[in-house]
Design a protein that fits this description.
Residues 1-24 form the signal peptide. The chain is α+β, with helices and mostly antiparallel strands. The chain contains 4 helices and 6 strands. Helix content is 36%, strand content 25%. The longest helix is centred in the N-terminal third of the chain and has 12 residues, at 3-14. Residues 20-28 have low confidence and may be disordered.
């Protein structure tokens, strides 16, 4: 097998895989934090459950739909996984905080 044929066959096989990787990378960031309503420095002083309660009252997590901000209806915090489950109608998203949280009472 010649080098030219070998490289072209590798390229031919990898082309259908490239869009799948691009789609997977595109879907990762779908939930956002509205920093106009609350600062990350303040969130660092709260526990995960307190942040979830704060969202349920003031709606700080959102996603974009047709270029507009749509706020999630409710948030629940899973302390074991260190993530929020955000719910909008029947849609559920997982949000892993990119800020540190304080630990609650032990």
């Amino acid at each position: 097998m010649t080098k030219k044929y070998k490289y072209s066959s590798i390229l031919f096989v990898s082309l259908p895989i490239a869009p799948l990787v691009a789609i997977a990378c595109n879907v990762n960031k779908n939930s956002y934090l509205d920093i106009n309503k609350i600062s990350r420095s303040y969130l660092k002083t709260l526990t995960g459950n307190q942040v979830a309660i704060f969202h349920n009252q003031f709606k700080i997590f959102y996603f974009k739909q047709d270029g507009k901000r749509v706020y999630y209806e409710s948030a629940e915090y899973d302390e074991n996984k260190n993530q929020f489950t955000l719910t909008y109608k029947d849609i559920k998203h997982i949000y892993k905080p990119d800020f540190s949280l304080t630990s609650g009472w032990k």
